[in-house]
Design brief:
It is found in: Mitochondrion. Belongs to the PREY family. Keywords: Mitochondrion, Transit peptide. This is Protein preY, mitochondrial. The protein starts with a helix and ends in a 13-residue tail after the last strand. Strands 1, 2, 3, 4 and 5 form a five-stranded antiparallel beta sheet that branches. By secondary structure, the protein is α+β, with helices and mostly antiparallel strands.
Length: 116
């Protein structure tokens, strides 16, 4: 909630409940006033990339082969070794769209990109 909405809520509470003091309402509302200001700064991106939660590997499978994936920390990708596909991870969120994945060669060790 925005600060203005919380202030209006606090004002309304005080007008209906004369027994509440402003201090008691502020003690309840104050933690929400500074809560996650990223909603206000939606157009501004942080330079810090979010880490991938490795515990998700327990649930994630390749959308094409339905086989388990391996996390490659060096390239920040989820690898399907059977098909030779690498799914990118951006801001800690795996992009599991097959068209956005890149092909990797198994034998030669060199990588090909399917993106332009």
């Amino acid at each position: 909630m925005s600060q203005n909405a919380l202030r209006i809520l606090a004002t309304e509470i005080c007008s209906f409940k004369k027994t509440l003091s402003v201090g008691s309402v502020l003690r309840i509302v104050r933690p929400f006033l500074n809560y996650n200001r990223n909603f206000c700064d939606a157009g501004v991106k942080n330079n810090v990339e979010q880490p991938f939660d490795v515990s998700l590997l327990e649930f994630l499978v390749c959308p094409l082969s339905k086989k388990p994936l391996r996390y490659e920390e060096a390239t920040n990708e989820l690898i399907n070794e059977e098909l030779g596909i690498a799914y990118p991870i951006k801001d800690g969120i795996p992009n599991m769209i097959p068209q956005d994945a890149r092909l990797i060669k198994k034998a030669g060790g060199t990588e090909e990109s399917t993106q332009s």
